[in-house]
Each structure stands twice: as structure tokens, then as C-alpha cells.
Amino acid sequence: MERTFLMIKPDGVGRNLIGAIVSRIEQKGLKIVGAKLMTVSEELAKTHYGEHSERPFFGELVDFITSGPVFAMVLEGENVVEVGRTLVGKTNPAESAPGTIRGDYGMTVGKNIIHGSDSVASAEKEIALWFKKEELIDYSLVNSSWVY
Ligand code: DAT
Ligand code: MG
Prior knowledge:
cytoplasm; NDK-like_dom_sf; Nucleoside diphosphate kinase; nucleotide-binding; nucleoside diphosphate kinase activity
């Protein structure tokens, strides 16, 4: 089964949105196989956002993501990378549809609540970067036959 990485950013944690966001994930039928509240080192932030290192907003992005705790998750499901991105919404919350996390909770691109892996390849990289193997749990949800 496919896996993806989602991370509630410091603004989402700071606005007490962990429960609301996790609730959407569970209601959608996705399985949480790993989750933790953690602080982000500058090194981890720079590695995670490495593809943006030449962009003018990189410094602000690293400062923001290290400014408070984040809630990191690994989710499992069919086609879950794409499904996760759909739940998250567009990068700019002002352009994100209502019903998406960014569309419902965010106003600016600099504080857009949540990260979601953008491809299967980045999901694999990000999961390995953020989680140890033993932090990911293999288990079955009894209701999965009603989801699939
Ligand atoms: P996404 O998070 O939707 O994958 P991205 O990978 O293009 O978007 O950018 C990573 C993060 O960087 C994004 O969530 C918020 C920030 N960001 C992107 N474009 C920005 C911009 N023009 N100004 C400020 N921050 C930006
Ligand atoms: Mg991205």
C-alpha cells in the first residue's frame, strides 16, 4: 500500500488545529501508520526544503518551520500521495478550494498550515528523513473493508 508524509506546520499546531486535521484524515479513510509532535532542527528544515534552497523565501521558510513544534505523520492508503495533496489543497491557501485544509484554514502562502509530499518519490525520501523504521506501525483497521 502507498504511503505519504504530511506535517502540520507550526502555525497549524499553534492554532490548535491538530485534532481538526487528523479528524479529516481519519474520516477520509486513510490509515495513520506514524505520528509525532516534534521540534525541527535547522538541518532537518534545510534538507526537507532543499529543492527550494535558491528561492528568495528559503530563509523565511526555514525560520518558520523551526519556529515551533510540528506534527509529523505518515499515512497509508491507495493512491495516498495524490489523495493527501488533494486534502491539503493548493500551495497558496487564498487559491485553495473550500473543503481543503489550506482552503479552510489558511490565508497566506507563508503560513499555509500543512505540508504534503508531492510525489511517490518525494514521499519515500521524506518518510525516511522524518521517521525511523521502528516509528512506523504495521496494523490493520477493522473497517478497511468498508473503505476499499
Ligand atoms: P507545497 O508546500 O504546496 O508543496 P512548494 O513545494 O512549492 O509548495 O513550497 C514549499 C513551501 O514553501 C510552501 O508550502 C510555502 C513556501 N512557499 C512556496 N512558495 C512561496 C512564495 N512564493 N513565498 C513564500 N513562501 C513560499
Ligand atoms: Mg512541495
